[in-house]
Amino acid sequence: MTSFRFRRGTLTTGQQRNWETLWPVLGRDLEIGPERIPEPQLDLDAMFGRDNPKVLEIGSGTGISTAAMAEAEPDVDVVAVEVYKPGLAQLLGLVDRNGLTNVRLIRGDASIVLRELIPSSSLTGVRLFFPDPWPKSRHHKRRFVQTGTLELIADRLVPGGVLHIATDHAGYAEWIAEKLATQDADRPHVVQLTRESPILLERPTTKFEGRAEREGRYVSEFVYTRPIPPASASGDTLDGSPA
């Protein structure tokens, strides 16, 4: 069962202008439906025209955090995935106004993006901020954080790459902690980060998070990393040299 839900919304005049002028340049729509053809893998370096660290943000919302963190790290390229068209249009406006050249956008199911578009060992970071908690027990299988998803994310990260999750839902935080604690160490997995992060971890406080704090909801954060193999093992590291 996928966590994907196609969210509709009406664009403002400014957002519609952003969509018409900027989306063809910076954005990409994924096919949906049972008859869709599997997506080809992305050439992430060609997507940005350079060989720099790549971060995948899953569920970028209105793009406030996306744009702020991209502006703070101009040498890191960000692929923002979202299904809500007005949110993507707002992010396009932020990218344009702030002169950001390191953000690209995808509209579609993040599970498909991870499975089909992102190559193995290609991401320096994956960000998952405030995912839908699907609070009802019968919907827990729709939650994005699952054992298989964590394994997939770990495979897409380079050794030393970081998974950063934030949620203000106490039940989902417990769920995430349990999934992280029960990973199969013989499969691609992540462990708690205990060294310096290769990407920015400081998030701006959005209106959504501010409301959560006023309502007494504590924000839980999880910062994990794909283990770096021992020096005697071979494989890619953050700088592309043998590990």
From TrEMBL:
User: Catalytic activity, per the record?
Assistant: guanosine(46) in tRNA + S-adenosyl-L-methionine = N(7)-methylguanosine(46) in tRNA + S-adenosyl-L-homocysteine
The EC number of this protein is: 2.1.1.33
Recorded superkingdom: Bacteria
> What InterPro entries does the database record attribute to this sequence?
SAM-dependent_MTases_sf, tRNA_(Gua-N-7)_MeTrfase_Trmb, tRNA_methyltr_TrmB_bact
Provide the GO MF annotations for this entry: tRNA (guanine(46)-N7)-methyltransferase activity
The record's section on PROSITE patterns has: SAM_MT_TRMB
Its biological purpose: Catalyzes the formation of N(7)-methylguanine at position 46 (m7G46) in tRNA.
The similarity annotation says:
Belongs to the class I-like SAM-binding methyltransferase superfamily. TrmB family.
Supply the name of the protein: tRNA (guanine-N(7)-)-methyltransferase
Q: What organism is this sequence from?
A: Gordonia alkanivorans CGMCC 6845
Lineage of the native species?
A: Bacteria, Bacillati, Actinomycetota, Actinomycetes, Mycobacteriales
Q: Which gene encodes it?
A: trmB
